[in-house]
Amino acid sequence: MFGRCLIALIFILLFSVDGNSQTVLKNLVQNPSFEYTGKDTVRDRPDESWTFEADDESVTGHATASRAIDGFRSFLIRAENGHGYLESDPFDVVRYERYLLSFGVCGEGRIQAIVRWWREKDDSLTLLEDEYIDLLTVREDWSVPQFNVTAPRRASAASVRFTVFDGHVWIDDVRFR
């Protein structure tokens, strides 16, 4: 009986939100699990909504089916020397709104998550500021770190950027809600 009451209480707490809070639950990141959107199975980019760059020729990044926490693919960055950068396209945000960033990571290396806040000016986006999230040391088992951020006063969009170095890291299930 106690177990049923506890489950009912948890259900009430989880689902008793006002209409404004419902928008926070929607993931704003396109293709958060790096699934291929077409028939092409050999491209490095799973979708036009993500961009990979590196500061050294030896650094590589690509979508892979070797490991995944959600769906069939994740994005693997190998950066033993140098840095690999994976960034989402900007998506709309509401100023002063609180958001939850979460993502799955595993491997051996270090990763820095950055929320890039953008502002619309003259029909284009200009970078307003970068908000650096904790530097993480990644281990072999999947973990899902979560961070709360608040959109600055002039922000109209955001993107999520990951910097990987000192090893190899799989990234999957990126959520910004």
Task: Describe the protein in words.
The chain starts with a helix and ends with a strand. It is globular. Strands 1, 2, 3, 4, 5, 6, 7, 8 and 9 form a nine-stranded antiparallel beta sheet that branches. The protein contains one helix and nine strands. Strand 6 and strand 7 form a beta hairpin. With 177 residues, it is mainly beta. The chain has a single domain, classed as Jelly Rolls, CATH 2.60.120.260.
Helix-strand pattern: HEEEEEEEEE
Whole-angstrom Rg: 18 Å
Q: What is the approximate shape?
A: globular
Strand content is over 45%
CATH top level is: Mainly Beta
Integer count of domains: 1
The unreliable regions are 5-24
Query: Could you estimate the helical fraction of the residues in percent?
Result: under 10%
Number of DSSP strands?
A: 9
Please identify the oligomeric state: single chain
Individual helix count? 1
What is the CATH-assigned architecture? Answer: Sandwich
CATH superfamily: Galactose-binding domain-like
For the sheet with most strands, the description reads:
9 strands, antiparallel
Q: State the separation between the terminal residues, measured CA to CA.
A: 35 Å
CATH topology: Jelly Rolls
What descriptors fit this protein?
177 residues, mainly beta, Jelly Rolls, 9-stranded antiparallel beta sheet, 9 strands
List the helices and strands and how they pair.
Blueprint lengths: L1 H14 L34 E5 L5 E5 L9 E6 L4 E5 L2 E2 L5 E24 L2 E15 L7 E5 L6 E20 L1
Antiparallel strand pairs: 1-4, 2-3, 3-9, 4-9, 5-9, 6-7, 6-8, 6-9
